[in-house]
């Protein structure tokens, strides 16, 4: 019996061979790497990769799919399935130098990325399929419309490469939106953020109301005078700031809070 795609688990299964091959080439899996797949589904990426490298770990929430994966993977190699919600997986416990990939459930993409960044020091590479619009946001440079909170946080942690677009027809069922493949490479040297929570809240506040100025969105955190003294125009919008501008803002706030 063929598995019915479950909407609540964001299930859209890849079926087009040429697309599957192109994604695997981008993931570039190698024997000996610690490979972890998020959401193996019916095995579209899992089985060919398993065949070429012999073993991998996969995190899947849907029990019916897990049963099917267990049976079918035997022909290809050693598949270790970790059952459960990827959002409650502590990736740090898996080990180091993780190579994480997957055609992600789009309904949890933002929380999932933020969750992965918590374990960033354990990750060597990530290659994901996401909704195209999300990949555009991840890769957006400052000054363009798609640039926002997710761009700043992601680019603080990773180098981002938009690899290619995937049309809805590559999946069953076909999603309503276009998809894209992104490569996220954790930066070897990150900017020096004194307090990560503070950095994240400054970024979130700065973008909280898109049409408002920086000074307005940061009211209660940083004064107009402080913004000016950092060389920023209080009247400018958050989307014009670089990642290092945000780091500077958060560190300034941190220093003031810890002096007083
Ligand atoms: N990799 C398969 C493919 O490309 O055909 C399936 C991709 S499908 C877009 C997303 C997969 O993630 C599904 O197998 C789904 O059951 C699984 N999934 C959804 N939510 C999950 C969660 N919270 N934790 C773990 N897996 C999840």
What this model shows, in words?
- The longest helix has 17 residues, at 243-259.
- It is built from ten helices and nine strands.
- The model has no long low-confidence stretch (mean pLDDT 96).
- The chain is an alpha/beta fold.
- The protein has helices at 17-27, 46-53, 63-73, 109-117, 132-139, 149-157, 196-206, 214-217, 224-229, 243-259; strands at residues 13-14, 34-38, 55-60, 78-83, 98-103, 123-131, 158-166, 171-172, 179-186.
- A seven-stranded mixed sheet has the order 4-3-2-5-6-9-7. A two-stranded antiparallel sheet has the order 1-8.
- The chain is elongated, with a radius of gyration of 20 Å.
- The termini are far apart.
- The site of S-adenosylmethionine has 23 residues, from β1 and β3.
**How many distinct beta strands?**
9
Approximately how much helix is present in the residues? 25-40%
Which strand order does the major sheet show? 4-3-2-5-6-9-7
Q: Could you tell me how far the N terminus lies from the C terminus, measured between alpha carbons in angstroms?
A: 66 Å
Number of helices: 10
* Assembly classification: single chain
Radius of gyration: 20 Å
3D shape: elongated
Query: Uncertain regions: pLDDT < 50 for 5+ in a row?
Result: none
Query: Bound small molecules, which ones?
Result: S-adenosylmethionine
* Major β-sheet annotation: 7 strands, mixed
Mean pLDDT: 96
SSE order, as H and E? EHEHEHEEHEHHEEEHHHH
Category by helix and strand content: alpha/beta
Report strand %: 15-25%
